[in-house]
Amino acid sequence: MLVMGLGRLGGGAGVARFAAEAGADVTVTDIAPAEKLGPGLEAIADLVQAGRVHLRLGSHPERVLDECDLLIVNPAVPRPWAHPYVATARARGVRSTTEIGMLVRRLRERTGRVIGITGTMGKSTTSAMIHHALAEQGVPCFLGGNIGGSLLSSLDRIDGDSTVVLELSSAMLWWLGETVPGWAPRVAVVTGFEPNHIDWHGSLEHYESSKRMILAGQRGGDHAVLGPGVSDWESREGVHRHTPASGHVRPMSLPGAHNRENAAAAIAAVAAMGHDPARAGEAIARFPGLAHRLQSLGARRGVLCFNDSKSTTPGSAAIAVAAVREKAKDVHLIAGGADKKIDLFSIASLEVAGLYTIGQTGPAITECARQVGRPAETCGTLQEAVRIVASRAKAGEAILLSPGCASWDQFENFEHRGEVFARLIEEHLGTPDAR
Length: 435
Known about the structure:
This protein is an alpha/beta fold. Helix content is 36%, strand content 17%. Helix 14 (362-371) links the parallel strand 15 and strand 16 (376-380).
């Protein structure tokens, strides 16, 4: 078996370990060198040392295809239907799938209680809220998918009483449509939709059709929870449709109207599984949030600091600014990153005290801001942006990292970007103020 793309979120390492422990001869390839794959390599170091997993890093050598009968493709690989390596494998009769495809096939044998969550924004937080609410009600539950890691290693603990919560990216959904046709979760949640990932899909139409696949395989008696902007998406006959409502949403520690919408969707999903929505609302009110998703770093010299490194779309940056305005007099926004070929003008149009741009898209965002008369400065790097903004932000204001763009132009991933931001904030503004 050949794993194409070890990746950084744990899925590649998870499927490599699962296959090796099942007795398969496993080879892992990745176009990145070893120094860029630290966590993934650490996770399978024992298998590599034992000779149970073989590494071919820095490229995807075609000769390895002669030795395998199954290709496991990392969903991050863009446009796999046109990728030369995937096409070569297909021409040689090698079957292709993904880690999530392998998982879903096996879940069919163990439990029908699966909640799938997708959407351009909010899917990670909503997934984690659902898992948190179920766990607090004593429901055996497992969280996996795009949020990171692999549930393949947990299969021996998943049974008919278990509920599996899967965050599903558009790439994962496209692959599931190709390799596990007809599959759908019992409860499908779509948090919302806006243009994104055109670099992967090739067109907005392909991106949207991939998202809609979460509904395509549902059957009568299943449930679809459809958030703002997607309430008109079609579902199959007999599927129970739900519009999230605020009735059971309680005051939360997480700021922002978008998090209240996430909570409403999570409560609706938990209720669709037959659990008490009031108890779900109470549990979600205590949910502490996820790292790098509008994560509060506390006040430093009176300046509020927020790490929203997970923000990779203009819409998510706008939502973050609106949320932080609930807490601060004004917002200094750091934005920019890798270019995903989407329109970034809306970031430049945000009403903020200052816009400090970084990465590949930084100059373009700055130029757009100047066209509409907004204050903006091209900083290039996150280090320079934090240095400048830390010298300008005043007590009662906020510094917000919400890039609205992907991270891979300057960082390993969004987690790395957020960790660097938190370190720089401490370096320039010190430790959190005493309460």
